[in-house]
Structures are given as C-alpha cells and as structure tokens.
Design a protein that fits this description.
mainly alpha, 10 helices, 3 strands
Length: 319
C-alpha cells in the first residue's frame, strides 16, 4: 500500500533508533586502500538482533540509510529463526542488483527485504527541501531493482508458504511505489544506473558460450571461474546530473549516449576488455539503438559480438 499514512504508522524504511541494540564502528585493518566514500560498508548478524557494524559514513543521511538497511536484515533474520521462508540449496546463481557476485536464495531474500526498507527511506524524503533531488533518484533506483529481485524470488519455486506470503507483501508495496511520480531526469538516471550494474555484472560473472547453439535467455547460467569482487561506483555517481560532463559515464548520466559511446569506444581502444567500459559501451549503444534490438543487447550482453567482448579481462584473485 503506497497511500498516505499517519506519522506514527509503520512503513518500510522507518526505524525507531531505540530499537538498535548496538552500533559498532568498523575499523579497517587490511593493507588495501579504503573504499571510495560512496561505497557503503556495513554488516549485521542474524544471531545478534539489532546489532550492526558500520564503517564511517559520508554524512548523517548516509548513516540513517545504513541503519535502516541493517535493521531490515535483523528483522528478517528474526523471522527466519521462527519460520522457514525458502528451500535454499545455497547455490549461488541469482542476480542481486546491489552485489558484485551471484547470490544464493536466502541472500537474495535478505537483499529484497533490506532494499525495500531503503526504498521506503528515500520515499519518505521525496518532499524534503534539502534531500528531495537525491531521494528521487535513490527511490526510483531501489524500487526498480528490488521489484526485479522480488519477481525472481516469486518465480523461483523455492519459497515456502510463509516465504511466499512475505515476498508477495513486498511486491504489493513496491508495485504501489512504482506508481509514485518522481522527477523525470532522476528517473532516467536511475534506470540507466540499474541497467549498467546488471550489464557489468553479467560481463564479469557470466561465461559466454564457446560456440553455437547459444543458450536460451531463460536457461541456466554458466559462471566464470575467475570472478573477483568489484566496486560499484556508478550507483551513487549517477545520483546527480553532471553540470559539465567530461567522462563517458558523465555523458551517459547527462543523457547524451552519443558522446558517451564515443568516449567508451576510445577508452576501450586503450583498455580492451575492461568490463566496466564495455558495459558502458553496450548501454550507450542500446540507448541509441532502441526497440527490440536494444532489449536483446541488454538481456544477454555477454553474447554480443563486440570487437572487445572476446577479450574481457577479469583480474585474478590476489593471494
């Protein structure tokens, strides 16, 4: 239900801070450099309800979003302790729009529940005088991504009766939120960011066939053996429209796929096989192509006969 509620009514994305039991700062001990400021690092445990560890956020709003996100995980973990929600074989085969790697079913369910809360968090701030523009983008992005995951869960055939009821409730909430109008430019950037993530995820994780016949779009995926984690910097970079676009990503965020395509092409000549650049090239090309051909490009980007596609370089894991 996306209708108006009284101030005290519960909705996904709202949290009474008094319900948080413990908040532990996450200090870095690794030799690797810290993540970019817009890459959020936090975690919670199903065995420690209401407790979470959080890396230093960029600001108060980022901290508030993280608290909502992690408490959603705590709530779902409590439910899972009480009721079996899914028949999970723990096979990591599912796409999660907020992860660099394939997920198992329980992880996918956790993400759907957490990001429904995140979408609700941003929905509550659409009319805020300071946060409204950012809220429009993040709300549009997270409602779209989460609804995709909810559809995957509902069609998996692995939810229990309780799990199906829970996920169906998420679907009803998100379907209502998809009808909430948001700024057109923010919506366009959100859709582009969502497509970029899925495209890069497939290029980095899904192994293309070695020869014809190609598998059907609905067939089981064959994953690359040499997968490693990668940082998704585009999700937050696309939150604002660049005033003076210079990079291919900035041109794409500004709604100029032609300039973006030229930039990605030049960059791929210097760095052939880079999955991030190739994902940008595919999305920009699809935006210029449009129609059914564009939908086919984006559905299975790992199959495209792009001159650089056969040389996708996925760095080997260290250590």
């Amino acid at each position: 239900d996306a209708g108006p509620r009284s101030p005290g009514t519960w909705l996904p994305g709202r949290l009474d801070p008094a319900r948080i039991k413990a908040l532990v700062p996450w200090g870095r001990t690794a030799a690797q450099p810290p993540p970019p400021p817009d890459v959020r690092v936090s975690a919670s445990s199903g065995d420690a309800y209401g407790a979470m560890v959080v890396a230093r956020p960029a600001g108060a709003l980022a901290l508030a979003e993280t608290l909502v996100h992690e408490f959603q995980h705590s709530k779902l973990a409590a439910l899972i302790h009480l009721f079996p929600l899914a028949d999970d074989d723990r096979a990591e085969r599912y796409y999660a729009p907020w992860r660099p790697d394939p997920r198992h079913l329980t992880g996918l369910l956790h993400g759907a529940y957490a990001f429904t809360g995140v979408a609700g968090f941003w929905r509550d701030r659409l009319a805020h005088p300071d946060h409204g523009p950012a809220a429009a983008y993040h709300f549009a992005l997270r409602r779209t991504q989460t609804r995709l995951v909810v559809r995957t869960l509902l069609t998996s055939g692995r939810l229990t009766e309780a799990g199906h009821g829970l996920v169906s409730g998420l679907a009803r909430t998100l379907d209502g939120w998809l009808r909430v109008p948001v700024d057109a430019a923010a919506l366009a950037r959100a859709r582009t960011a969502a497509v970029l993530h899925r495209t890069e995820w497939r290029l980095r994780n899904v192994a293309p066939p070695t020869g014809p016949p190609w598998p059907a779009a609905t067939g089981p995926l064959r994953f690359r053996a040499e997968r490693t984690a990668w940082s998704d910097v585009r999700t937050h970079a696309f939150a604002t429209r660049p005033a003076r676009p210079r990079t291919p990503d900035e041109h794409l965020a500004a709604g100029d796929p032609g300039a973006a395509l030229d930039g990605y092409t030049a960059a791929l000549d210097r760095e052939p096989g880079d999955p991030g650049l190739l994902a940008g090239w595919i999305v920009a090309r699809a935006a210029l192509t449009g129609g059914r051909a564009a939908r086919r490009m984006l559905a299975r980007p790992e199959l495209l006969p792009h001159p650089h596609a056969g040389r996708i370089h996925v760095p080997a894991a260290e250590g």
